[in-house]
Amino acid sequence: MVRAPCCEKVGLKKGPWSPEEDQILVDYIKRNGHGNWRALPKLAGLLRCGKSCRLRWTNYLRPDIKRGNFTKEEEDAIISLHAKLGNRWSAIAASLPGRTDNEIKNIWHTYLKKRANPEEEEETPASKKKKQQRDDAESKLKPEPVSSDSSSVVSASYSDLSSLDNDSGNVAREEMSFSSGKIGTFDERFWFESLWVDDSAESVDLTSFEAPPAAEEKGFWLKVFREAEDLENLTQERD
DNA sequence: AAGTGGTCCAACCGCTCCCAC
DNA sequence: AGTGGGAGCGGTTGGACCACT
């Protein structure tokens, strides 16, 4: 059977989005949400495929997207999660608020893969330089850790964290669940907790998401690593 | 200054999954 | 239970940008 095209291709625009198109899409979603991606471009007045709109929104226009360089902690989290989850970028992205699967996939192929498996591929001078630039920028931006103790926790490996006191991260593990039993799809409660959202709210409003204060970052990453551990345990149980 | 090669990242493609009917 | 449509996911590509020669 021939698969139907995702949309009527004739006359639809492809390639980079213009600021005007971005504005139209953002305005429309702000007003109406994105109930049906396929119908959205027509309703919004965009000459784009619904798929393209969804991608543009999820990877670029979403208000909760965190732009800018990945921190060392984020990179370490990606490497740890990739070791556990493999190329399941969406599952990895679910543990990194504000980061998209596309972005994580890109950064992995660009240089984290090499960092994780240094024997496979030598670092090129250019990638070394780029990394140095990132490290420099990061060291200028990043505040000093509250104490040497806390910084050691943040940079600890995933496996090291499993031995830490459960209470320190205040993780309500019994509340974690996975929708449809699909590994890597987090229950909304994960976001209530991870995004510092008031859990008395009736729904998660990601547009109001703000990155945790630096002082709370440790708890956040601790939680992320723990959730990843839960994912692994769940996978083993299922197998 | 021009040419070349490497890197980065936005966007597309095609496949799979999920769900309604 | 089977089918079709929509959404989501991962792989891949193309072009802009930058550094080096």
TrEMBL record:
Pfam family, one: Myb_DNA-binding
Coarse class of the protein's main subcellular location: nucleus
Keywords: DNA-binding, Nucleus, Repeat, Transcription, Transcription regulation
GO CC annotations, alphabetized: nucleus
Statement: the UniProt record of this protein carries the keyword Nucleus: yes
Region annotation (Disordered) ranges: 116-178
Keyword Endoplasmic reticulum in record: no
InterPro entries named in the record: Homeodomain-like_sf, Myb_dom, Myb_TF_plants, SANT/Myb
Compositionally biased residues, Basic and acidic residues: 133-143
Low complexity bias locations: 146-171
Localization: Nucleus
MF (Gene Ontology): DNA binding
Annotated Myb-like domain residues: 9-61, 62-112
Location of the HTH myb-type domain: 9-61, 62-116
Name by which UniProt lists this protein: Transcription factor MYB30
Source organism of this protein record: Canna indica
